[in-house]
Amino acid sequence: MSARDRIRAVAESLREPRSVNWISEQADAAWSTTNEELQDLVDQGQLRRVEAGETTRYQPDYTQLLFEEIRTLIEENTRKELRNELAAITEEIEEWQATYDVETWEELEQSLADGDLASDGLHERRDVITRWEENLEDRRLIKHALVLYSDVEAAREQMLDVADRAMR
Fold first, then answer.
1. pLDDT score of 98 more than 90
2. Model's pTM, two decimal places?
3. Domain 3-60, what architecture?
4. Where are the domains of the chain?
5. What number of other Cβ atoms are within 10 A of residue 63's Cβ?
6. What pLDDT band is residue 164 in, cutting at 50, 70 and 90?
């Protein structure tokens, strides 16, 4: 993996704004290369520059990432597949609610403090909490994708029509 690839990988994984120095260190890349690559990512709209006092920090453009995820869901799945995934997520959450007699992952998390749980039970509940949170995020994205599905399809068809006319 090249230095620029490592820089991009680090930048795409950021969960909070980070400085050029921090990203450079994590990517094991020269400061100048890191600075240039981060500027390119800002110019491409993939990163945002955040001024924190006298330090410039960088973070992903979370709005763009959200729309890219939704677009990918629409491009790679039919409406029926998205609806089926939504149903599967709902079923899995309902199973956890029944199994652990809770309504939310937060309630399940509170049960971790129960002194009568063995370590296996604790690990299992922690894993379920993680999957539950992921399912809620997936469900949110899928719902957005279903709302926008027709609009994205119409835009894609319009682009194809324009391309067809231009080739004639």
1. yes
2. 0.68
3. Orthogonal Bundle (1.10)
4. 3-60, 64-167
5. 10
6. low
